[in-house]
Design brief:
about 350 residues, mainly beta, Porin, 16 strands, about 50% strand
Amino acid sequence: MKNILKTIAVLVSASLISVSAKAGELSVTGSAKFSYMTHGGNDTGKAMGISNELNFTASGEMDNGFTWKYHTELDPADGGAASNDDTAIVIGMGDLGTVGLYDAEGGLSTELGWGIGAMGVGADYANTMTNIGRGYDVSSDPHVTYTTAAGMLPFGIQAAIGYAPNTADGQSNSYKAGGAQADSDADGSTATQYKLTASPIDGLKIGADYYEVGNQSSIVSQAKSGGNIYAQYAMGNFKVGYTRGKLEPAKTTDKYGTDTADTATALGGDAYESDGIGIEFAVNDQLSLSISEEDFTRVAKTMAETASTNSRSEVTSSQTTIMAAYNIGGATLGLSLVDTDNSDYTANRDETKTILSLALEF
């Protein structure tokens, strides 16, 4: 894997020798959003919030026909603090594909590929959970990704591979940053993710991803890994989607240890599984409606020396999400209703959320 990425880097570097970049263009886009949220069931909080995202983009072309694009975002955090993040430099090589250098950006997880949600994809847009147990992604660490060009492969297939050389490096590093020491770790000190998507027939989109780590310490009995699959089919004003995912956090007990089993809380599970299905309907050019059902299962495993004493216990949290979005020119009014059974993997803990929102794009 490292050799493949090194070869790509050498090819790109060779192509850039004696090539000057033409003057680029700078643009600024963004959004401003308002929300009013109320909770129900075991949670009775209320909140109003306003946020914005400003995306600064620069792009240009090199003398050899390659293109380049840089972007960074200015995002507010809770409490009013702001930070630059979601930064990337992407080199476009025409029919050869693209090479991207990413910091807190460039995710390859396909967990949102099923794409159902008038305001946003299901539980990713809003949920009541402390941990839904989904979505290992190389975007969590500075990484390099190679992506094949559109049309390079048949049936609309596109492939991508991302590699993070040091997961202890941290994000938002400055130019010539030294980085943290890449020691072996229970969670691994490197990460690799693979992504494959396709559009084999009109209206159908399918995809999958797989995440794995490297340079793990010798005490690991379960490696950190995860992946997702999805399918979406659109016909007329309707589209339906399905997703399924699984992840396993690193387990550092001995082969027969049980100290990570903890069915009473959201965190500390031995594995997490998820699946979802939904439908979205565009009533007209302004109004869209959607409904989705998602299950998130937290697995605790107790392993023993004899197979007869092995055990597995599960707790499933189920979420129903109903959304409506109404577009008025450059503004979108939204209403989202979230209803969760066994929230936080706790039996009989039922919670709801109601979100009224206004989004302005510019």
